[in-house]
Amino acid sequence: MTTFFDAPGDTPEEVVPDLPKNSDAASDDRPSVITSLGGGHGLFQTLRAARICTPHKINAIVTVADDGGSSGRIRRELGQIPPGDLRMALAALTADAEEGGLWENLLQHRFGGHGALAGHALGNLMIVALTDLLGTSQDALDRIAALTGATGRIIPVCAEPLDLEAEVSGLDSDPRVMRQVRGQVAVAATPGQVRRVRIIPENPEPNPAAIQAILDADLVTLGPGSWFSSVIPHILIPEVIEALTQTKATKTVVLNLTAEPGETAGFSAERHIHVLRQHARSLQIDQVIVDAKTLSSPTERDHVERAARTIGAEVSFHDVQAEDGRGRFTSIHDPAKLSAALLGSFAGARKR
Q1: Which of the 8 DSSP states describes residue 288?
Q2: In sequence order, what E strands does the chain have?
Q3: Cβ-count burial 54-82 (b if 16+ within 10 Å, e if not)
Q4: Angle, vertex CA 43, rays to CA 103 and CA 210, nearest 5
Q5: Taking Cα atoms as reference points, which of 51, 60, 56, 14 lies closest to residue 33?
Q6: Which of 164, 162, 169, 163 shows the shortest CA–CA distance to 190?
Q7: CATH code for the domain in which residue 21 is found
Q8: Strands 163-169 and 193-200
Q9: 74 contacts 137 by C-beta, under 8 angstroms
């Protein structure tokens, strides 16, 4: 069936009080606990939407495979997990008040010039420094969340950096030849066609907090974002797939509005779903959210619905595109529109 919808504490433990598993505080149409998996700008927009969906608890499970820019320098020089996507998630969850806006700007502030600090974001350095002082990235993130008045918890999917390696075609005169491309930046920028990705190490130890956040959720979201480098790495971790199987949460995939140059160039909405299933055969999803404007053809919609059924999902078409202030649509999701889409899909799934 298709649905159409045109005061922080002194310790990390006080920041994130335990909630009962699959809390009964969730109503039929509004989740109490939302857990969002992803990274980068896609996760940022999803977390903004989640803040509208629930006044209770938000968990952001963040990929740790970035190897470019400030994050790449930090992981190479200090051996810590890349902090860039973690910083962006923190910025998305800072308080709405004037002070919260200042914290968001401070976390996102990037140094200029040509010296050692050039290109580093202040939030990245805060995470690194507190990790050194407190011993773990999770403790550091919990403390910064308390300091900034963040409305949720930022959880690295693993406590160790991951590497991304892709099988890419089209880099040779013979299109059947597959080449290995390693590194998130290299995968995102490849002129070839990404066929499959894997993470190194192949079976990393997941962050226990990430697994618990999936089990505790009423609503779990996956995507939008860079499909091969921000979304799929989560489902390559066996314990994450097991938690997604066990959780009683409604599981929703939010598809990208457009294919990205490089890693998903030329991908249809249908193919995004097939790639998910290719990388995690046992993955079962309840809902897939697709933008109604970018997928208006009945034939394309039929193809997406058919693909969604292979992962157990129904498709909902919503208006979720942001506008640029001049009435023109952009390639990012509007948090208010996405919130309405998530709530509609959640309520529909709960009533089935």
Answers
A1: E
A2: 3-5, 33-38, 57-62, 152-156, 163-169, 179-182, 193-200, 219-222, 250-254, 287-291, 314-318, 321-323, 329-333
A3: bebbbbbbbbbbbbbbbbbbbbeeeebbb
A4: 95
A5: 56
A6: 169
A7: 3.40.50.10680
A8: antiparallel
A9: no
CB 268 within 8 A of CB 297: no
Give me the numbers of helices (H) and strands (E) for the chain, helices first please: 14, 13
- In which domain, by residue range, is 163 found? 3-351
β-bridge pairing 219-222 and 193-200: unpaired
Q: What's the token pair of residue 272? A: 């995004």
**Pairwise CA distance, residues 40 & 43, whole Å:** 6
Among all chains, which residue has been given the structure tokens 């070839």? 192
Phi, psi for residue 9 in degrees, rounded to 5: -85, -175
Two structure tokens written together for 68 = 């470019």
Which pair of tokens denotes residue 61? 């499970």
How many residues belong to the chain? 352
List the Cα angle 185/186/188 in 5-degree steps: 65
Overall domain count for the chain: 1
- pLDDT per residue as tens, the chain (352 positions): 444 443 333 333 333 333 334 444 455 678 999 999 999 999 999 999 999 999 889 999 999 999 999 999 999 999 999 999 999 999 999 977 666 688 999 999 999 999 889 999 999 999 999 999 999 999 999 999 999 999 999 999 999 999 999 999 999 988 889 999 999 999 998 999 999 999 999 999 999 999 999 999 999 999 999 999 999 999 999 999 999 999 999 999 999 999 988 789 889 999 999 999 999 999 999 999 999 998 989 999 999 999 999 999 999 999 999 988 777 788 899 999 999 999 998 988 887 7
CB-count burial class (<10 Å; 0-12, 13-18, 19+) for 198: middle
State how far the Cα of 62 lies from the Cα of 157, in Å rounded to an integer: 6
Please state the φ and ψ torsions of residue 172, each to the nearest 5 degrees.
-130, 160
